[in-house]
Amino acid sequence: MKRLLAIFMALALCVSVSVTTACLISDKGGNPSSDVSDSSNSGTSGGGTIKPGEEEEENTVWNKVANFSTGFSSADGGVAEIVKYNKDNGKFYLVNGKTQTLDIVTLSTLKDDKTQLETTFNEKTDRIFFNSLVSEHPEDFADGFAVGDITSVAINEEKDVVAVALQAKAYDQAGSVALLNYDGSFIKAYPCGVQPDMVTFAGNLILTADEGEPRMGYGEGYVDPKGSVTVVDVSTGNKSGVSTVVTFDEFNAKRGELVEKGVILKKGTEPSVDLEPEYIATVGNYAYVSLQEANAIATLDLNSKKFTSVLPLGFKDHSLVGNEIDLLEDGKIELKNQNVYGVYMPDGISAFEVKGETYLITANEGDAREWGDYSGVKKTKIEGTKVETLDNEQWDGIDAEKTYILGGRSFAIFKASDMTLAYESGAKIESAVAESKFKAYFNCSNDDVELDSRSKKKGPEPETIAVSEIDGKLYAFVGLERIGGVMMFDITDFKNGGVTLSAYANSRDYSANMAGDVAPEGLDFLPAEKSPTGKNLLFVANENSGTVSVYAFEKEAKTYEMHETFVSAQGGEGKGEISSTLVIYSAYGSGGKTDGTVSHNFIAIKNISEKEVDLKGYTVSYSTNGTDWVEKPLSGSIAAGEVYIIRGAAANTTSAVINIADSQADTEWNDLVIDNKVFSLRITLNDIVVDLLAVDADGGSAVSGEGAPVSDMSKQKIVIRISGDTNDNSKDFEVISFKGEAQGSELVKTYTKKLGLE
Prior knowledge:
Blueprint: E1 2-9, E2 33-34, E3 61-69, E4 83-86, E5 91-96, E6 101-109, E7 117-122, H1 123-126, E8 127-129, H2 130-136, E9 147-156, E10 161-168, E11 174-180, E12 186-194, E13 196-202, E14 205-210, E15 228-233, E16 242-247, H3 255-261, E17 265-266, H4 271-274, E18 277-283, E19 286-291, E20 296-301, E21 306-312, E22 315-317, E23 333-334, E24 341-343, E25 349-354, E26 357-363, E27 370-371, E28 374-375, E29 377-382, E30 385-390, E31 395-396, E32 404-406, E33 411-415, E34 420-424, H5 428-434, E35 462-470, E36 473-480, E37 486-493, E38 498-505, E39 520-526, E40 537-542, E41 547-554, E42 561-568, E43 582-588, E44 600-607, E45 613-614, E46 618-623, E47 630-633, E48 637-638, E49 643-650, E50 667-668, E51 678-685, E52 688-696, E53 717-721, H6 729-732, E54 733-737, H7 746-754
Parallel strand pairs: 7-42, 24-32, 49-50
Antiparallel strand pairs: 1-42, 2-23, 3-41, 4-5, 5-6, 6-7, 6-8, 9-10, 10-11, 11-12, 13-14, 14-15, 15-16, 17-31, 18-19, 19-20, 20-21, 22-24, 25-26, 26-33, 27-28, 29-30, 33-34, 35-36, 36-37, 37-38, 39-40, 40-41, 43-44, 43-53, 44-49, 45-48, 46-47, 46-51, 51-52, 53-54
């Protein structure tokens, strides 16, 4: 194993509410209009303002005090999605949908400075592979269940358990929620609805929001699964719980009533399949469920396990003062009123109580149904820019004569009893970015730092939200998926519109399209009394960069030296987009021995995805002793479903059953000589190991690999993959023999056909 100690310098990129700060939101009125060199932007902030001359007693800043990297990143997101801290053991738990894993990371203070934090992670012991857990506990899962995505994690410190939401690989198959001990060991799994996307605890109940998306589209033969909320009652014990899947079936008879109120439904669909739960917030005996695409909130009675209501959230009129928006992709910052309506379509939601009244606060991201060949959006030309809008012909619950854009570019507070709007942040978020040190990247994307590139779509795209009380004041933390970072708002006086921006913490590196902490997806606030430093901490999971950033709430900006200790069982370092698309398919080594089976040493790599893979940045390596690696950079590409053959040295054989000709090999590697009994192979992308095969004829321990090595190997045998990648070589691969009576048999024909050598 290779121990990596990475030193990171903190980016204390925080915006204070002091009037001396460049990011002060002004109350001058008018509409901000500038290019990135103009620092004099001013304008209405919507729903309450910070006025010139008004200062907080003390500045509020968030200093970055710790960082963790999964070692993976992806422009498509889905790497580091949800993070939860456990005060009982000082560890945080991070889901990684790309690798179907849960990372358990130790967070501790450094001896010399208690304000600094260190993250320690051993990939071999602290990364939990769920495909392996499924295979080890088949009795707890449906027949043939395979993990497709790990979407969410929750911790119950009263019951000392961790819950993880598991989506099935088959998009229309029911998912599961797995219960683990703090160390990641398996306790029990319970069935849930289709595509659980979020998990949370409510006392003795485990709740999952089951999206049920029609991911293949709406064509003939495709399925639109039912959306649902699963309630698992574990009051009788973690291993004896009862799982109930609550659907929206009863609302099918009320479809007309729903759309009349403004719940958005696809024409010709029933609510039971069209309502797709996204997120859950609980207060007392009620769970509030965001139905993002429907622009609605469902209320679930946890006692009766029935939905009591589905209520619309309404629309944001961008023609009103305070709701200015930059809708044009014209290379400049210009917030102004437009004759369009924003559809809130919240992703993350949170709940809180004020004087016995329950309120919901929403991150108004915006999302619409786009699956397969179907799209519910269109391009509408506004002042020369083709803006992404709803295709009104596809939807019920909207006014056919109005123009609707996706999302509110805001957060909003609703009264939970009837979903009446109590507060809306208006143009605050876009205005704050426009007047911050990040203005040069205003409305950029999470994988493209170009100014204004997201204005015609969903702007900064508020993704997630959390609420907490600090020193007697109520704060909302809003994660901005596209430009990045988290905004902190004082919402104590929201009923009177007195909401102010307290800080903007952003540790994204804009020197490249995707560097630093990119695309916040999950937030977890840790109050000072539970913190290892005695400071309020905010954990941010950044799904594109595959990182977790930890910020400390303090009164002055500091620069910290961050320490990250990452122990990799695979010996990889650096960052790269994880490839779940390429796997080692088969290999043969003679080691120069006589009477072999194949004419050449070789390695076969297969593209198991549905798209062609460019091999730039990929390297294949082999080792015969587990320590010294020989590497070969790859070039070209592999078509979807095809095998790429790397032909090595010729074997010393006179009786080859399989002959690999020059024309059949994709590349030559004359120095490739694989031992016939012990060897290790790996594929890397930008120094990150994406697949590894370890072979030991005696069942010993070849180089640190994925599970037990493949055994019983010899010069007459070939190792071949027989399953997907479960991170256990002994289960993923099989040794087949061509010697004796097998020569010339259907076995050889089958194998050569798979390799494309027939």
